[in-house]
Amino acid sequence: MKNLLFFTSPIGLGHASRDIAIASKLSADITFVSGEGASRLIGDHGFKVKDLYRHEGFEVDDHGELRHTLRWLLSYWSYYKKCKAVAENVIKESKPELIVGDEDFASIAVAQELGIPNVIITDVLQTNFTKGSLSLIEKKMNKVMRQMIDNSNLVIIPSKGEDHGNTVYVGPIVRDVNSDRQTLRKRFGFNKKTIIVSVGGTNSGRFLINKAVETYSKIKGVVDAEMIVVSGPSLNIDGREEGVKYVVYTKNLHEMIYACDLLMSLAGRSTIDEAMAYGTPAIFIPIKKHFEQEENAKQCGFRFEDLYRLEELMLEKLNGDRSRMATKNGADIASNLILNLLT
């Protein structure tokens, strides 16, 4: 069986979620390299995983605004160099026939230096966190990233677009749901209309949790609904609002998203993809000044200022209709593309 190393960015849980979806369709000897909550999620789905990466998350204030972007970029550059040293040790020890990096460009850099076939999975072809003279460092980082993308054997983008060169747009990549919605609702104990609030694997979403719970306290007398907050392993929140249940971690958040009546989330790509694929009504609030999340939210018809009209949006979405569940999954296309490189 072919030997494949899968390097997954540990920043949030979205990368791990979609990589699990792809890996579950691959017939290969797969070892993941990631860190913290992402490593736990991958391991809980039965894959071998080396928990080696440690990262510093974004700094988001209590109002939901991204702060000190230049400092974060400098920290990320330091993190990248540490990850590259880790990746080099793992790659030289494992001697893989193929390396897949989901927004882990450190492993891709090593793969290309050693002449090992490599695949990049990414939502972003360049970053845009800084402006003016502060952007010089970011431009240099973007140039390095662009060179790696151009030199990769395959670049997989989990959205719709026009293929070109080594880049293939496969559409949303989500984990399969293996039970019908009513079965899942019974399993999770969803007896009322259920609102899921999810902020991923970082501590950046506290502002959204606070606002969502505050808004729920206003509407719970109008609609017979319950709220479940999935705070993620990086946040420690002790809620007291009646009717709100707090869950720190679940390996099957995708099934909860499918089973619930409304999802409220930050505007991370993978969570958006899951809601859209499963037909679940959703509200996506981006971190302010986070260029990627703001663009993701815009594509779904939301913006940061919607944080201040959640009551209207929640009532509208809870009384709306669900969409049909998607019949296509980008994980099938992505896995076949990767298998073609392994043969």
Poorly predicted runs are: none
Give the percentage of residues in beta strands.
Answer: 15-25%
- Any idea of the CATH class of the largest domain? Alpha Beta
Shape: globular
What is this entry, summarized?
It is built from twelve helices and 14 strands.
Tell me what the structure shows:
The chain has helices spanning 14-23, 36-44, 69-94, 105-114, 135-151, 181-188, 206-219, 253-259, 269-278, 291-299, 310-318, 330-342, and strands at 3-8, 29-34, 48-51, 59-60, 66-67, 98-102, 118-121, 154-157, 167-169, 193-198, 225-230, 244-247, 262-266, 282-285. It is an alpha/beta fold and 343 residues long. It has a 7-stranded parallel beta sheet with strand order 3-2-1-6-7-8-9, with helices on both faces. It has a 5-stranded parallel beta sheet with strand order 12-11-10-13-14, with helices on both faces. It has a two-stranded antiparallel ribbon with strand order 4-5. The termini are close together.
Sum up the structure in keywords.
Rossmann fold, 41% helix, seven-stranded parallel beta sheet, 12 helices, 18% strand, alpha/beta, 14 strands, globular, 343 residues
Question: How is this fold's topology laid out?
Answer:
Layout: E1 3-8, H1 14-23, E2 29-34, H2 36-44, E3 48-51, E4 59-60, E5 66-67, H3 69-94, E6 98-102, H4 105-114, E7 118-121, H5 135-151, E8 154-157, E9 167-169, H6 181-188, E10 193-198, H7 206-219, E11 225-230, E12 244-247, H8 253-259, E13 262-266, H9 269-278, E14 282-285, H10 291-299, H11 310-318, H12 330-342
Parallel strand pairs: 1-2, 1-6, 2-3, 6-7, 7-8, 8-9, 10-11, 10-13, 11-12, 13-14
Antiparallel strand pairs: 4-5
Helix pairs in contact: 1-2, 1-12, 3-4, 3-5, 6-8
